[in-house]
Amino acid sequence: MQLSPPLIRHRAHSAGLLPVVVSLVVSLVASACGGGASSESPAAQSESPASGLATKCVGHRTAEAEGWVEPLRPGPEPNLPVTVTDVTGQSVTIDDASRILALDTYGTLATTVYALGLGDRLVGRDISTGVPALGGLPVVTANGHELQAEAILDLDPSVILTDYSIGPLEVQLQMKDAGIPVVILDDHRSRATIGEQILAVAAALGVSEAGEKLASKVEADIVAAEAEVAALAEASPMKDLRMVFLYLRGTAGVFYWFGEGSGADDLIASLGGVDVAKQVELDGYKPINAEGLVKAAPDMFLLMSGGLESVGGVSGLAEIPGVAETQAGVNECVVDMADSQILSFGPQYPATLSALGRAVFAEN
Amino acid sequence: MSWRRVTRLPDASAPGDVVLSARGVHVRFGQVEVLAGIDLDVRAGEVVALVGPNGAGKSTLLGALSGDIDALPGTVTVNGTSVADWTSLELALRRGVLPQRSDVSFPFTVEQVVRMGREPWRNTEAEDADDVIVAWATESTDVVALMGREFPSLSGGEQARAALARVLAQQPGLLLLDEPTASLDIAHQEQVLGIARTRAEAGDAVVVVLHDLGLAAAHADRVVVVSGGVVVADGPPADVMTDALLSAVYGCAIEVLRHPRTGALMVLPRRDIVDLAESLEQRPLTTKGAP
Amino acid sequence: MASTATISSATSPSASEASAATRGRVRTRTVLVFGGLTLALVTAVIVAAGSGQLEVSPSEVIGSILHRLGIDAGSMPSHPNGDAVLWDVRFPRVVMALLVGSALGVAGALMQGVFGNPLAEPAVVGVSSGAAVGACLVIVFKITVLGTFTTPVAAFLASLLTTLIVYGLSRSNGRTEVVTIVLMGIAVNAVSAGLIGFFVFLGDTQAREQIVFWQLGSLNGIRWQAVAAVAPLMAVGLAGAGTVARRLDLLALGERPARHLGVNVERLRLTTIVMVALLVGPAVAFAGIIGFVGLVVAHLLRMVIGPSHPTLIPASALGGALVLLLADLFARTAVDFADLPIGMLTALIGGPSFFWLLRRERSRAGGWA
Fold it and tell me: How far apart (Å, rounded) are the C-alpha atoms in residues C113 and C249?
């Protein structure tokens, strides 16, 4: 007697849920089956979207650039004072380029200053700047990518080039308050912005001529590197490699994949790969979703060496949910490159690209 | 201070003036009507004891009189003015309330707690007498030795006396005391009700909820018996406290005796009678005592 | 009304002597604590003004200050950026540490008073994270209707709302049980964390950096503009705290006894909550979530000078300012070129203290229901 009312309610409840459950199950089945091929093993899944003729990519390789970008010699003499309008629309006058700080998350700005032949004028660097010749400079972003105003001002810079990829913004404003010319540059990094970036840095330092020289040299190098990579791709038995760039910081529990507008999309395009993040319409930087990764079915992972290390190498990588269920994970097809190089769209991009191309299309 | 102009300071009441008046007080807790229309007047110079069995509504009545519980419908007036027309500060200058339990959230000393009773008088002339009044209040309640102790560290009885000292220091013309003797030993029970008497003699009106009928008989000018949410008797102890009435109200055979030497009323349960009906037959029920 | 004759005749010297003695002891201790705190604070300000990653000698600090006052005495900082660092970087930061510290200290004392519970604290209860939600909203959607005041005002409104919610839900019969308050804090912090996470998801890289940056609490990058934006709100909050202090004492007796002593309890509660929000909101908007300062400072001071709010509140302002100034001094000088998150430091010290207080409260209350 007493049992009947709750029983009735329970029935009504489950009846209401049923359609939802059914549709969930249906969608799960659909996504798990990918193109509808009946799959017995996870490895089989990704074969259907990829070309059936392609040779698999197997194994882990590390891309190493052959030397760093060569600075212009002799270094140019800055023609100062110069007034530039920065990305915030403010005009900044620079009358002394003897002590330069160039700070961003990617290390591109300092590398550009170095490539312009002004490396000896840098008084500090960010943690991402990988130019060996600048290794001895004090790192002003010891705390991740956070700036400390007093420490920076202690270096007595005469001009600071930076962008919003590093912060906090207030510290950049404080340096401005302190009377240092602070030029805020565009923080977008892509294949297309390399030349503009070089010109902007050069303009702010009063070496526009050298800037143009460097920009056209780098552009020519990029074209050459792209041709080299294309030739390697042509010769390789691996066709239409499905690639994805993973940003990992295992110690902090950060597992991201990079999509459109992250720079990784340009890299993959230059390598002639199929950008799976683009296919699944991934925008910017997003935490990895295991099922999404499996569905995207990459054949190859591009990684920062530090990121790979932070998860415990290739074997550790397989423990990230979703990785082991992809073709790339099964075959351990991983290409890594130094953190300071792989996504640095600056003067060293040609070297990065050709090194990556050689690693990607290396014989298995 | 602007509020000094607006705040109406109390005038002295003459003995016999009605200080507190309740009319048609009803209180409902959900579906249960706890007070079903209570009329009560309390005059300057008298101690009125509220007695009655558990759940009769004594404490609810005191709550309604003190404004802790809304009386709807019903009116409560203090010094002739409805409580709604006094500010809380003006009421504090006229009416002091001792709750059943006194908790203090932080380790305030007894002295600090007693001094809090002086707070309504701040920025008045009476403020000058704070030290004297605090000293008097603590001495009357026998808490002088506890002055420096932290209130939360005191025993229940000590806390009850310190809380009473605070209410005394407030010097209201109307004192509402909710079971002030509950956790006290016999000496302190006598002392506390002695204070109530002294206050009444000094011209204050005192309402005190009591469980101990003997104490009520000994110290109150009037006993108000509350039962089932109504006043069933209201009058001098000797008139109200009869065997029949108390037995009926408490549902237990009770006899009221006179002390052989002093003639004081003593209220005792009749442990020799088990059947209440039998006891009622023996002594027919008398109705409400005349006020 | 009450006859003074009866009263004075009943007075004996023993009572007034006893009370005078206790009061004397408390007063001496209070004077010592205030004197000590003021002295320590002044010393700490001097040390903080003279320390940083860019070295400026104390005499140069004094010289620079005198120079700004129009007195050409003492030596100016020898480092080319010395003067700029002092006035654009270090001094605003020192002033902000004082403001935020005193705001958090006072907010702790106020919340404990109004909750009637020594464990109430803006960060524990979730008011700080509520304020952070308001600030995040402004940052992510780039709202600037009130100029530099936008973020502090948004944080103030959000923390006001949170405080009201917490207060409304966690009290019963005018008191708040330890368990209720801790659980309420967990719930509110969880909801806030969820909302912040959602905003981080929505925000662009810059907003994300900004949010992540101050979730840990930091005074890095404080400029005079920020000081000017928080100072008026905090000044109102601090002044308001002074006006409710006496009535908070009475509230310790419970709501009804307080009302019987003439306190308009509803108004007192509302005023106090607004003051807490005025103090916590702007502090969180610029310094992030800095926990435990309010909890530990107010509690320790209460043990020394007693629970009376008219002394506890100003003492908590001094104590909070001192603690935060020292924590920030450490945060900005401990590691070369780095700035440690100050919220991490206060949590490292405050967390264990909180634990200790919890145990103490539990044993005092005879276990938790």
Answer: 8
**A5-68+221-361 CATH choice from 3.40.50.300, 3.30.70.100, 3.40.50.1980, 3.10.20.310:** 3.40.50.1980
What's the rounded Cα separation, in Å, for the pair C261 and B175? 13
Interface touch B136/C263, C-beta < 8 Å: no
Chains C and B touch (3+ CB pairs under 8 A): yes
Whole-number percent of chain B with pLDDT over 90: 68
Task: Give contacts of C6 with chain B, Cβ < 8 Å.
Answer: 136, 198, 202
For chain A, the domains span 5-68+221-361, 82-217
Please give the C-alpha separations between residue B81 and each of A139, B7, B18, B87, B239, in angstroms, as whole numbers.
78, 14, 11, 11, 31
Q: What's the Cα-to-Cα distance from A75 to each of A125, A203, A351, rounded to whole Å?
A: 19, 15, 21
Exposure of A55 in the CB half-sphere (CA atoms within 13 A): 11
Give the fold, CATH level 3, of A82-217: Rossmann fold (3.40.50)
Report cis status (omega within 30 of 0) of the bond before A74.
yes
B84-120 residue pLDDT tens: 899 999 999 999 999 998 889 899 999 999 999 999 9
Q: What domains appear along chain C, each with residue ranges and CATH number?
A: 96-363 (1.10.3470.10)
For the complex shown, is ipTM > 0.90? no
- pLDDT tens digit string along A143-187? 666 788 888 999 999 999 999 888 788 888 899 999 999 999 998
What pTM did the predictor assign?
0.81
Burial class, B278, CB count within 10 angstroms (exposed 0-12 / middle 13-18 / buried 19+): exposed
C210 interaction partners in chain A (CB closer than 8 Å): 167-169
Tell me which chain A residues have a C-beta less than 8 angstroms from the C-beta of C200: none
Residue C325 CB neighbour total at 10 angstroms: 26
Give the residue among C295, C320, C315 at the shortest CA–CA distance from C97. C320
A and B touch per CB criterion (3+ pairs under 8 A): no
Tell me the residues of C at the B interface, defined by beta carbons under 8 Å apart. 1-4, 6-8, 10-12, 14-16, 18-19, 21-23, 25-26, 112, 116-118, 175, 246, 249-254, 256-257, 259-264, 302, 306-308
Average pLDDT, chain A: 83
Cβ contact B59:B3 at 8 Å: no
Q: Which of the other chains make 3 or more beta carbon contacts under 8 angstroms with chain C?
A: A, B
Answer yes or no: same fold for A5-68+221-361 and A82-217.
yes
Question: Which residue of chain C has the CA closest to A171?
Answer: C221
* Residues A324, A328, A329: CA angle, nearest 5 degrees: 20
Query: Any CB–CB contact under 8 A between A261 and chain C?
Result: no
